[in-house]
Write a structure and sequence with these properties.
The protein has 343 residues and is of the alpha/beta class. The chain has a domain at 2-44 and 143-201 and 287-342: 3-Layer(bba) Sandwich (FAD/NAD(P)-binding domain). It has seven helices and 18 strands. The protein has helices at 13-24, 39-42, 61-79, 96-105, 142-155, 255-266, 312-329, and strands at 2-9, 29-32, 46-47, 84-85, 89-92, 131-134, 138-140, 159-160, 169-170, 175-176, 179-186, 204-214, 223-225, 229-234, 237-241, 274-285, 292-295, 302-306. Strands 1, 2, 8, 9, 10, 11, 17 and 18 form an eight-stranded mixed sheet that branches. β13 (223-225) and β14 (229-234) form a beta hairpin. It is globular and about 65 Å long. The two termini are 35 Å apart. This is Glycine/D-amino acid oxidase-like deaminating enzyme. Pfam families: DAO. Residues 5-318 form the FAD dependent oxidoreductase domain.
Length: 343
């Protein structure tokens, strides 16, 4: 029988960021990394402190942004790569009223560090009203992050490449198959809806689509945003996305969302491009826009870390540290993120 402190269920941002924190704390753990593709794996990985529809900020935006350098520098010590790409968001203005609103909001104390008052004209796309730069915004190399984290933790014996079987848990003895554990932490995104212990939680699947496109032209070195994000992945390959949809729970690609993406790209990029891939997956969202952390109301050895929503990198990195402190040091959780708010 193998003895571990923690079993992590899920290999998205929540699971791997938490694995990093537990490694840092010298805890023993395994990660059940099943075959499911989550919203984390196809996400843009954009880290942006500003809501770009209203030019406003959100709860804990600054502390989350500030923590990015810390956690990715820590991860770099064992993967030998820093996945942060310091490429700011350039928001194309739709009309003059948006420029006025941007300037007005840029004088507010919470937005002054982020909304640059120096507008730019992008050369590669149409932006007749210029574009606003979100200072400090960035993105991560999502594919590189997951590939390298899986490789590293597999080399250390932490990865179990198998789907988790809820029926095999012996809660009274804290045994799962050939493992004894102190806690199981479910970091499984929308698959929590099939979890018999946490299925009543209001985690809503939000289906996203994105494109990988080939563009044989230099594009301005920004995360360009009008309706969706456009940025470079590698030479001539670009990410464009993503969509939001709550009504379609199928895993199939929806042609209507692909059309939405194509129309969005054509609205500001007038040259030729080729769609190389279309991807779709589900984000785990919560209506109150707060992640879910904490302990099952009946079973003390079952924990949850879920509901990262569309800000998977920001929420996952920052709140993984909160979750680790809760697990390792019994620190109290903020009621706004505690799973107790649903019981």
């Amino acid at each position: 029988m193998n003895q571990v402190d923690y079993i992590i269920v899920g290999g998205g941002f929540a699971g791997f960021f938490l694995a990093h924190q537990l490694k840092k704390s010298n805890a023993s753990f395994v990660i059940f990394n099943g075959s499911q593709i989550s919203g984390s794996h196809i996400s843009a990985g954009v880290c942006n402190p500003v809501i770009l529809k209203r030019f406003s900020t959100f709860w804990k935006s600054k502390v989350q942004m500030d923590y990015l350098d810390t956690i990715f520098s820590e991860i770099e010590t064992y993967t030998r790569k820093n996945y942060l790409i310091k490429e700011p968001v350039a928001r194309i203005f739709h009309d003059q009223a948006e420029k006025v609103q941007w300037l007005r909001n840029s004088d507010k104390d919470d937005l002054k560090p982020f909304l640059s008052q120096d507008f730019v004209t992008l050369e590669s796309v149409e932006n007749p009203l210029e574009s606003g730069i979100v200072s400090g915004s960035c993105r991560i190399d999502v594919e590189g992050f997951f590939n390298d984290m899986r490789t590293y933790f597999e080399s250390q014996g932490h990865i179990i490449n198998d789907n988790f079987d809820y029926d095999s848990i012996d809660l009274s003895n804290s045994v799962y198959k050939n493992f004894t554990f102190k806690n199981i932490i479910f970091c499984e995104g929308i698959h929590v809806n099939q979890n018999p212990f946490f299925s009543t939680l209001p985690v809503v699947p939000n289906k996203g689509h994105c494109l990988e496109v080939e563009i044989n032209q230099e594009i301005d070195p920004f995360i360009i945003k009008k309706k969706h994000f456009l940025f470079s992945l590698s030479k001539n390959r670009f990410y464009y996305g993503g969509t939001y949809g709550r009504l379609d729970n199928s895993e199939e690609i929806d042609p209507e969302f692909v059309e939405e993406l194509e129309n969005g790209l054509k609205a500001f990029y007038k040259n030729q491009y080729e769609i190389v891939k279309v991807k779709t997956a589900f984000r785990a969202t919560v209506d109150d826009r707060r992640p879910i952390l904490g302990t099952h109301p009946e079973y003390d050895n079952l924990k949850i870390f879920n509901g990262l929503g569309a800000r998977g990198v920001l929420n996952g990195s920052y709140f993984s540290n909160v979750m680790c402190d809760y697990l390792q040091h019994k620190t109290e959780l903020d009621p706004e993120i505690d799973v107790k708010r649903f019981y």
